[in-house]
Write a structure and sequence with these properties.
Number of strands: 11
Structural class: mainly beta
Helix content: under 10%
Number of helices: 0
Shape: globular
Largest sheet: 7 strands, mixed
Distance between the termini: 40 Å
Strand content: over 45%
Radius of gyration: 13 Å
Order of helices and strands: EEEEEEEEEEE
Length: about 120
């Protein structure tokens, strides 16, 4: 069983930046970020393969968010720049034994989530 712990969320003004981190208790293959805004379904944000050679991002965050990982630390990061109020959500880290991209139901492990609030 792999435990995931997210950190780095908070309150930021529109146009600002935040970096989310997710530390895993063991080795994982793909890791990803999803988010859920109040009253909305959980949605895919970004994913990265174990090597980092493959990444996927949802269209609305391309050019603003960057996913990366440090396998020596079993940690994945989400650098979020040019934040918008519509990015406000609880952000969840997920990890899987294969590369799952945006297929949320395939990820075996999930974190508890970290709140990101972007004020206008």
């Amino acid at each position: 069983q792999v435990q995931l712990v997210e950190s780095g969320g908070g309150l930021v003004q529109a146009g600002g930046s935040l970096r989310l981190s997710c530390a895993a208790s063991g080795r994982t293959n793909s890791m990803g970020w999803f988010r859920q805004a109040p009253g909305k379904d959980r949605e895919f944000v970004a994913a990265i393969s174990w090597s980092g050679g493959r990444t996927d991002n949802r269209n609305s965050v391309k050019g603003r968010f960057t996913i990366s990982r440090d396998n020596a630390k079993n940690t994945v990061y989400l650098q979020m720049n040019s934040l918008k109020p519509e990015d406000t959500a609880v952000y969840y880290c997920a990890a899987g034994k294969g590369y799952y991209g945006d297929y949320a139901s395939w990820y075996e492990y999930w974190g508890q989530g970290t709140q990101v609030t972007v004020s206008s």
